Amino acid sequence: MTDYFEVHARDGAARVGELRLESALTTPALVDNVLEDAGSLWAADRDVPEGDESTLTVLPHRGFPGGTAPEVQESFAVDYPDVDYPSVAVISSEHATDHGTDAYAVSDVQSITGHGAALVEAVINTRKAIPTDTALLFSGVATPRNVALLAYAGVDLFDETAAVVKGMEGRYLTTDEAYFLEDLEELPCSCPACQQPREEFTRKDCAEHNVNALEAELGIVRRRIRDGRLRDYVEGQARHDQWLTAAMRELDSQWGYLEERTPILRDAQINAATGDTIRRVEIQRFADRVTTRYRNRFSNPLVLVPCSATKPYSDSQSHRQFHDAIQWRGHLVSMTSPIGVVPQELETTYPAQQYDTVVTGRWSEDEKQFVSTVLERYLERNEYPKIIAHVPDEGYRDIVERVEKALDLDVTYTVEEHPTDDESLANLSAALAGELKYSKREREHNTVRAIADYLLGDGAGDDLFADIQTTSRYPKIQVRNSEDTQLATMVPQYGTLSFTLEGAKRWVDSDAPTKRVEIDQFVPHGSVLAPGIVDADEDIRVGDEVVVEGPKAFGVGRAEMFGREMAESTRGIACEIRHVEEK
Question: Is the pTM of this model over 0.90?
Answer without folding.
Answer: yes
